[in-house]
TrEMBL record:
Chain intervals with Basic and acidic residues compositional bias: 7-18, 25-34
Gene Ontology molecular-function annotations: cadherin binding; RNA binding
Taxonomic source organism: Opisthocomus hoazin (Hoatzin)
Disordered: region residues: 1-38
Domain UBFD1 PH-like C-terminal: 25-137
Descriptive protein name: Ubiquitin domain-containing protein UBFD1
Amino acid sequence: EATQQEVKAEENKKEPLCRQKQHRKVLDKGKPDDVMPSVKGVQERLPTVPLSGMYNKSGGKVRLTFKLEQDQLWIGTKERTEKLPMGSIKNVVSEPIEGHEDYHMMAFQLGPTEASYYWVYWVPTQYVDAIKDTVLGKWQYF
């Protein structure tokens, strides 16, 4: 029986994230009206303004502000702003959204398990690498 569960877990991993039920309900709402324009095939640095026009897992508006001088990522919603030290974010995962490959869904791992992922949808693809590098602290050589 354990092997059957492992096989199921494997199958779930192969299914693209954007097809999984928990993500479908947000993605099926479609792009937010105020989504930031995306530039496919280009890597850009983080803009100096917050990244806005994205949804969180409950379909609420979310904005990401990178406070580099404080080494913090601020995740802002209408209700509140979570101020997370960059060092507390254990991982960042992202995957293009099917049919809208110029946007990604992205998760910030805030605790030890997958249950602690904070999902953000409709992240413009040109910022994905910059977000990962900024949060995970990749050294930049100029």
